[in-house]
């Protein structure tokens, strides 16, 4: 039984999940990976810094900063909570920009990755549509811009199957011509667990790497490729069937494992490591086809809510003139 | 470990799957359940007749006729195949009507169940929109109707959460006032396997029963309630996470079971019956919430294709004047 | 030149416009039609009472109460103004219910008329989707309903072309079975002027009459037909090309008419009455077809905004527990 | 009364209408403008060549080739006619490419201009979505491409208000990086008459000029700017209120003008030239705002039909392997 661990490490796009997998059930701290957790009002914020090469290798994530908001109750439809999450996201994103040295004057290009025709992949385009765009005013009437508005442009480049062109090539063409200081790329992610879907937001300063997100990107959006800082905002909107299965096996293990002869119930499935088990599941599922990516059936509504949260938060974080009292005026 | 088998028997809305579960891996024939299978051009047609109370109990399905079309390749996007499926469906549906004694003059009310805002639940409303409706002409200008068109009306009654009224109550109100001879109800179903999603169509003369389909119906659409024959057309568009997990365990069993000590690998999971295992999985998954209904991420496109197939097939089956050459003119 | 005035009186669905047309440019008061105007924050509220048969004949409107909100700036995209309009609408609607004797305990059926596939005709279905529906809780768990929520159900019955059944027949079937005390019908209207489109809301206690609204209704939704009070809420979303043309001719007359020999410029078009001129325009336009109903190109966005205003206002007016601070939680 | 003719000459984007306006009611031939008309099956094809500077000045159009398909019955919903138009369009477009020297091997970038959120402006993005895209296969697996497929990519760059970047800048960035041989730009146009809306298709080899189409483009897509041939495909989907009014006045003139004293009826409106009258109308309408662009209320359905016709036609014209029998397989 060959275990191609490399392959499965992409099964989650969340650094937090990678870290948890690497830590195992004992939650052993990982050298080179610093963590800071805060929780209030049902919103858990985890600030992860992958500081060393060793830390990076241990969790299979690039060196960089990762902030994750987890809000398990987000799918409950409480609009008060939604607003709170949006404000927390705005606060964290603003701090994130400052921490990595991006000033208030930097001009921004927001890139909404994904396919607007595939609901769980439409997060990026939806955020673009609700972002407060100002670059045209800077070009056409620079003298008349009120204070408090930063120069922001945005693009939803579509997906390779619809355009025939890699998103990163389109973005690079636009970067060459419009010279933004920073890219903020929004992407729908895959998660290991159904519960994370549309309840978790990840901010990272490592850009978008090939193979991450839902679509099959072959080239990424990174500082190396584009020459400017690339911040990625991701929300899990799908998960793989294999990770669901694996999750359940893990839960079974915990469920029966309390002082009981789990091995009797689960056989070898009890013994092997999580990675090995995932591999096993994958070996079984593979022949069924590539499309075993699933999403909750209410995805249409969830995706609108989360896109609105991200766009409102971005508008507030990027423009001083936008605050919780008027942020609603800029989204649909 | 208490196994509430009753509960899980609703996990599939397909009679074919119920039968397969009841038969077990040996495919033992079930007394009182007659089966006829035909396969051509990648389309498998199974005509199931649950003829006796014993047969009904054995597979947990009402006495009645069930025709199932299975087309595994349907999600591949081949429009030639789509047309072939539509024609086969039209042919089978026309025969089905005749077999259960519904003549060419019977007037029809098509009921599109489900929620048009939730993509995997929007099959019914989509079929309604693409159905050829003629009742208004029968009311307004009965003398001018060309031969070959039957009297057809349609309604998408919405879902309880949006209307506050049970679909069946809305339908009954309409039946009382417009007096159709027969109801054809279209509904999105839950299946046991992801592969069946949008590749399988079931026709049944047992109406819609409470608890079936995606939504939580408390009253059904049946001959007993409405006083006229109710034919149900269903397409699986979601499946439960628990059934996916269970499926994989079954596949594992088969995968390793060929002459190998499966028990070693899977422990008790190898021994217990499918129903028990499903129960076990469910016991573990339950605490996660009720929303573990999943759908493939490309559902937006799949649902349009299958709705078009069903609507075209219906139009062709119901109106003699509609045939493969002009059927496209009536759908969008 | 035969002037079929009857025909053209349907060219506006707004009582306010009918009254203005009847008054002529001199704004002569009309006996039997009482008017009360209030204006604040850019919102003009006109409360019109057509009290006598003579008044009804003079303006071509049924005896009854009409409240109109006019907000010319509404299409400007100011979300603060949108909220203000929603609150004003809620306030006026609540007063309207009390004035015509509908108490806080009356159960309501909201009817969203129109076709959800035709953007300017989708107002009704959109309002239904954003209404706070409670009837199901009254049916399923009457003891657990918090105070401040009225019994409300809703239906979007579709249009004759899609269902083959008159909206009024569907509604009557539902009324027979669910016994609401009052109907509130939402409909998209035709106006005489493009500027009124999506900037005006009309409330009336006369129900929906055949031929009003965008679709071609042959039967209405009125107290006479349904046996319960029918309140109509309408928003103009289209206008006829002929009324645009006529409007411009009128404006020309005013434009050049200040002490100038208008007759020289406009010939007979200057002399004839508005009704005659409209007839003339119509005589010319008729041969072009029936589809000369036009709408602004940005209708997609406008319609969402106004549907949200009406739904929020309704939710607030119908349920004491809904107020400006939490109203957003009930709409999408 | 100052007549700013320059301003109004942009009121139509159709060369055919410009020519007709320049010709006047006598249809005087215009030197330097050659015309070839063919009509069959209810489809009128006009091939216009603006050959000289004088011809260009006379009709206010750039020197170049224009092919226009007019199909008055197209909005009737006849799917047989739709297919015929698609085939005629494919035939004309293929000939057009050859005539202007674009060979079968040239690689193409299709640019879908416009805003996908504004229905009448969504033609371009809709065509992009239904175009057969192959460039990714040329990049990833050049050896495995079947004969008969040309290298085609596509982009819907969005509109300035949503992106903050001119469409032409985005396109130029993509051209720089992907080096297509030819651009085909699809754009929604404004027409002088409501009847032309979604019934007329224009092909031109002059690219997209600033100010043309629905959006307010400040830079164009032309050979001068992009360095490669730019073919424009346009469909009128809106018209200006002022042109409707003007049209009606013209019709009135013709209506009453047959041997009657029109001047008596229409005064000066009878005397002045079409351009002057349009100016007059505009002077009156201007104060009402900029949004007096109107579209038929059924635009949602019309736009889907015409986008499908254009996309199918393009697929057939660009790829030899696509023909009338399989063209449906490539559009949605």
UniProtKB/TrEMBL annotation, chains A, B, C, D:
EC main group: hydrolase
Propeptide segment residues: 1-13
Organism superkingdom: Bacteria
EC number: 3.4.24.78
Keyword Protease: yes
GO biological process: proteolysis; spore germination
Matches recorded under HAMAP family: Germination_prot
Name recorded for this polypeptide: Germination protease
Species this chain originates from: Paenibacillus donghaensis
